[in-house]
Specification:
InterPro entries: NA-bd_OB-fold (IPR012340). It contains no helices and seven strands. The protein is mainly β and about 80 residues long. The protein starts with 10 loop residues before the first strand and ends in a 16-residue tail after the last strand.
Length: about 80
């Protein structure tokens, strides 16, 4: 199977929830200047709409993902003026 390394490190949204080790879902990933769909595997179930980070390519149109929460969101408010 050919791996797609360009997708590793990209962000995406869950279109069809993953079921953890019970089965894949589907994600829409921003890659190569556009958006593409992939089968997505995760250790824990992920709901529709969750933001994910692609952590591995599993071959033809399949990726491993984790839920992603932007660490800057924890700062709250507007960080534009922060020094």
């Amino acid at each position: 199977m050919t791996q797609d390394e360009a997708v590793v490190g990209c962000m995406g949204k869950v279109l069809i929830g993953t079921r953890g080790t019970a089965g894949p879902g589907e994600v829409l990933v921003r890659v190569r200047g556009g958006s593409e769909t992939f089968l997505a595997w995760s250790e824990d179930p992920l709901p529709v709409g969750a933001t994910v980070l692609v952590i591995e390519s599993r071959g033809c149109r399949e990726v491993g993902v984790i839920e992603w929460v932007d660490p800057l969101d924890a700062l709250g408010g507007d960080t534009a003026g922060a020094s």
